[in-house]
Structures are given as C-alpha cells and as structure tokens.
Amino acid sequence: HPFRYEPNPILQPLNQQDPLKGENLDLAMTKDEVLVQVGEGVCAVKTLTKNHLYCEPPPQQPTPTTNGNKREGSDSLPEFIVSLQLAVCRAARHHRP
After folding, report:
1. Is residue 3 one of the residues assigned to a domain?
2. Could you list the residue ranges forming a coiled coil in this record (predicted)?
3. How many domains does the chain contain in total?
C-alpha cells in the first residue's frame, strides 16, 4: 500500500458525558492503534468511528501531568491526550547451518 497523509481530524470541545466528537477521527488509525491517556491514567478505547471516539476512563481520577511535571492551581485537571501507537517491526536474518 502507498503511504498517504491524511488531514488532521477536526475535534469538538470535550464534554464529560459524551464521547469525543469530531470529523475524520478514524482516517489515520484504527481503534487498536489509538492510545488515550487521562493524566497519568489510560482510558480504554471502546469505539472509534469517523465522528466519535469513546473510551472508558480509569475508575479513579488520575494525577495530572505535563511532560512529567505535575501542574498546579486552576489548571490541575488531567489532560486528555489521544495518540497513535506505533508498532515497530524488525526483520531478523536467520543463518541456516
């Protein structure tokens, strides 16, 4: 398959009761390739479609972090981060006797 660039997805503001909404959310990745983090916790991805990403948050509110540093003050809520998990495959050469 040829390598293709897909446009960045368009995201709507996050709402606590609804899944993440937007456009073209599934063009560049599948449900199994998505990693969703809430602060230091992982949100289990249940659904990824063109317009919705739904994940089950950790049972307890995770600790907020930014690049490993805890945030303070009014900005102390955990960040919601969606990223693409990349699998690295390596081919090994095997010598036959």
Report:
1. no
2. none
3. 1
Where residue 64 falls among pLDDT bands split at 50, 70, 90?
confident
CA-based nearest residue to 53, from 76, 28, 88: 28
Amino acid (one-letter) located at 47: T
Task: Give me the domain span that covers residue 37.
Answer: 30-84
Nearest 5°: CA angle at 15, between 61 and 69?
Answer: 40
Which stretches of the chain are assigned E, i.e. beta strand?
Answer: 10-11, 20-23, 34-38, 41-48, 52-56, 80-84
> Average pLDDT in the 8-16 region?
77
Predicted confidence (pLDDT) at residue 61 exceeds the cutoff of 80: yes
User: Tokens 């990745």 — which residue?
Assistant: 29
Kindly state the tokens that stand for 93: 């050469």
15 domain residue, yes or no = no
Q: Is the pTM of this model over 0.70?
A: no
For residues 76-90, give the mean pLDDT.
71
